[in-house]
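task queued by scheduler; priority normal; single chain, no ligands, no partner chains; default sampling; output format set to C-alpha cells
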Amino acid sequence: MYFGSPVDAYSMLYALPIALVATTFGLRAGTVAGLLAVGLTVLWAMTQSVHLTPTGWASRVLPLLLLGVLLGHATDRERRAHEEHRRLEAAALLHREAIEVNDSLVQGMAAAKWSFEAGQIDTGTRILDRTIADAHDLVSSLIRRADMGARTEPLHDRSTSLHDPVRILDSPDGPAKRRWAEAAIPQQRDASS
C-alpha cells in the first residue's frame, strides 16, 4: 500500500490468495476475492495518487477477476461432476441389489407359491425355508456392506412372539429361539384345530 511504483505491479501478488479462495470455496467466493483484490488495487492507486492508463488498469484488474471467476467456476464444475459420479455409483449399487433381491427372494417365493398351489406342500415348504435363509443372508450382507456400525435405537419392540417371526429371527439368541418357535408353531396349530 505504501511502497513501490506502478512499474512494480505488487497487486499481482493477490493472485495466490484469490486462487486459494476460488479453489476452496468455488465461484462466488472466487469472484468476491477477485473483487476485493481489485478494490485494494483501486485503494492503493487513490492513496498513492497513482495514475494508470486504461491498459495499466486492465492488466491489473482483468487477470485478478478472471482468475477468481474462472478457477471458482472450474472448482464448482468439478464438485458437481464428483457428486454426479457418486450418485451414479449409488444408483448402480441399488440396481445390482434389486436384481439380487429379485433373483433370490421374489423368484423363491413365487416358486414356493406355485408348489403350494400344486399341492406339493413339502416342496413349497423347503423352497420357502431356503428363501427365508437367503433373505436373512442377503439382509445381513447388506447391513455389513452399509457399514453403519451398531445401531443404538431399537427399530421395534424386541419382545419375542410366535406371531412375529421377525423378532424371533432378530433376537440376540436367534437360532435357539427360531428352533423353539419352529417347534412351538405346530403345537399351536394342533391346539387351535
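post-processing summary
- The radius of gyration is 34 Å.
- The first helix runs from residue 15 to 25.
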